[in-house]
Amino acid sequence: MSLSFSRSLRSLQQDSFGPALAALIVTSLLLMAWSAWFFLAKVTLYETSRDFSVQRDGSLQVNFPPEALARLRPGQAATLRLANGSAPEGQTFSAQVMDTPAANDQTSQVELYVFSPEPIQPGQTGQVQVEVDHVSPAMLVLRSAGQFVDDPKLTLSPQQPE
Questions:
Q1: Domain range holding 97?
Q2: Nearest 5°: phi and psi at 112?
Q3: What is the domain-level CATH number for residue 93?
């Protein structure tokens, strides 16, 4: 018995653990890269609407749901994508939110200015996307889990003393 035990000790002493150490280093590097992406990357959140009309001055009146209006502010970047009949990809134009309804206003229309070399024709169809936030994937996970709410209308206000 002692002969086989001494062979196993010599075998352990001669083992360099090289492949296991290399795998551990590679796994650690991948985990650190994924963690950096998870906490530092930025994901753009959009509010989207397909209901818009072209005004005489070339601006757009876009209808958004009431819950989306709370996240829209003048100056936000937007994109107008026009549909071209049977073509899957239409024309894309940059736009900017110019005006939003007041808090007590009953309308759900937002005015956008479109940066276009030619005027947009009335009756065209497409979609409008407004950039409303840039968050990390970690923040998206926390929001979907209900652990973090970054919406001012959903935060609790302190109670007034009676």
A1: 43-147
A2: -125, 145
A3: 2.40.30.170
